[in-house]
Amino acid sequence: MLSKSKVFITRPIPEEGIALLKKRANVTLRRADSVISRRDLLKGVGKVEGLLSILTDKIDGAVMDAAPNLKVIANYAVGFDNIDVEAATQRGIVVTNTPGVMDEAVAEHALALILAVSRRVVEADHFTRAEKYKAWMPMGFIGPSLRGKTMGIIGMGRIGSTLAQMVHDGLGMNIVYTDFQINKQLEKELGAKKVTMNELLKRADVISVHVPLLPSTTHLIDTAEFKKMKKTAILINTSRGPVVSEKALTRALKSKAILGAGIDVFECEPSIDCDPSDQLELKVLDNVVLTPHIASATNEARIAMSTLAATAILDALSNKKPKTIVNPEVWSRRRR
Ligand code: GLV
Ligand code: GLV
Questions:
Q1: Residues catalogued as catalytic
Q2: pLDDT, mean over the chain
Q3: Does the pLDDT of residue 282 top 90, yes or no?
Q4: DSSP H or E run through 201
Q5: Cα(138) to centroid(ligand 2), Å
């Protein structure tokens, strides 16, 4: 039964996951390394039981309706805001993501951005390449040290906790955080303290956002939030672009209301400028480091994501509840 199941992969991912799928299913891999067009997506899902999607694929009710046999959508990402999960649940389609295998990768990238901003690494690199380094500068490229400073983590889930551990153990930072729940273990091990959003914004020297994109987290960081931050604060976003208002961020950076920012995700991604007419461009500012949504881009994380997504598809197609199901309520009335 399973050997006849058809699985569609919308874009090349590490071979490990593809090989797993090929052992037990009839796999169609779209080989072009570009975002799939809507047309090709609607066509590609036509006869399949399993879909391995990436976060730039918008999987809505129309895509599901073009796939009458579709039983499982495995998103090659921890975030799944590109999928209409409610529409999937209504149709009896299982949706899975890839949690737990990229916590180090994303936390390491957040750390890379923190240090790149605080020690002005990119700015200094540009300066050096331009052969502007003429003599050692007693007052050049000075930034804050991090030891003893306060790290504010918004969203103390797996990734937030991993970052908290890294900056506490590695840099000697104090940790404050916001979350729905108290993380007793981290409070005990790291002396982390759960505070209100207001308090976190006022106290933190570095603020890093680790929440999923939901209606309630859209523009979680907006003008009012930037106003509460220290003038010396650094903001890091490796979660989803719309969690931070790009306009408010650019204004805060331009007016030096905060020291700097490290940004891996963009409100109008892949564009890094939602409104070209507003004279607010991140890319012209020196106090921001920009990366193209690469926080999970380690060999280890991407291989693990590919095998986890493949395993979820194989499990669902052999009537085994995937460990990474995001709509568990669908399981008892799933399509068979
Ligand atoms: C990447 O952004 C992910 O959600 O995995
Ligand atoms: C810096 O290079 C120093 O020697 O202090």
A1: 240, 269, 293
A2: 97
A3: yes
A4: helix 197-203
A5: 9
Domains 2-99+299-335 and 103-290 share a fold: yes
Residues paired with 232 in a beta bridge? none
Distance 78 CA to ligand 1 centre (A): 5
Reply yes or no on whether the pLDDT at 14 is more than 80.
Answer: yes
Q: What residue ranges do the domains of the chain occupy?
A: 2-99+299-335, 103-290
Please state the atom number of ligand 1 nearest to the C-alpha of residue 80: 4
Q: Residue 193: pLDDT band by 50, 70, 90 thresholds?
A: very high
Ligand nearest to the CA of 240: 1
**How is residue 128 written in tokens?**
């050096």
pLDDT at 7 over 80: yes
Closest by alpha carbon to 264, among 105, 94, 65? 105
Nearest ligand 1 atom, CA 76: 5
Q: Which CATH architecture group holds 2-99+299-335?
A: 3-Layer(aba) Sandwich (3.40)
The ligand 1 atom at the shortest distance from the C-alpha of residue 102 is: 5
> String of b and e for 310-324 (b: at least 16 CB within 10 Å)?
bbbbbbbbeeeebeb
Structural element, H or E, at residue 152: strand 150-154
CB distance 79 to ligand 1 below 6 Å? yes
The string of pLDDT tens digits covering residues 130-165 is: 999 999 999 999 999 999 999 999 999 999 999 999
- Phi/psi region, residue 148 (left: phi>0; alpha: psi -120 to 50; beta: rest), is left
Confidence of residue 3 (pLDDT cuts 50, 70, 90): low
Task: Please name which ligand lies nearest the alpha carbon of 140.
Answer: 2
Half-sphere exposure of 304 (CA within 13 A, CB side): 16
- Domain 103-290, what fold? Rossmann fold (3.40.50)
CB of 203 within 8 A of CB of 152? Answer: yes
The Cβ of residue 36 has, within 10 Å, a number of other Cβ atoms equal to: 19
Per DSSP, the three-state class of 44 is: helix
Nearest CA to ligand 1 atom 1: 77
Burial class (CB in 10 A: 0-12, 13-18, 19+), 283: exposed
- Token digits of residue 71: 């039983």
pLDDT for residue 4 is more than 90: no
